[in-house]
Amino acid sequence: MEENIQVLIARHLDVDKAAVTETARLREDLDMDEISSMELGLAISELTGTEVSEEDMDELITVQDVMQFIQRAG
Fold it and tell me: 62 CB contacts (<8 Å, ≥6 apart)?
């Protein structure tokens, strides 16, 4: 599951999968902007079947935060 999440993040943020480590910060390290944040939120929604709000995305700082969010939602 972890690798699937890394691939998902890499694809939606247009970064190399190797850069998507648990401690990588979405905005600072992986250059997530508002548009890619919305796209990633939609992808997470599709994966989990749970709505991901803009506020939820604002609270996700690192890749590990995304993984934990998906585990809680799934």
Answer: 22, 23, 24, 25, 26
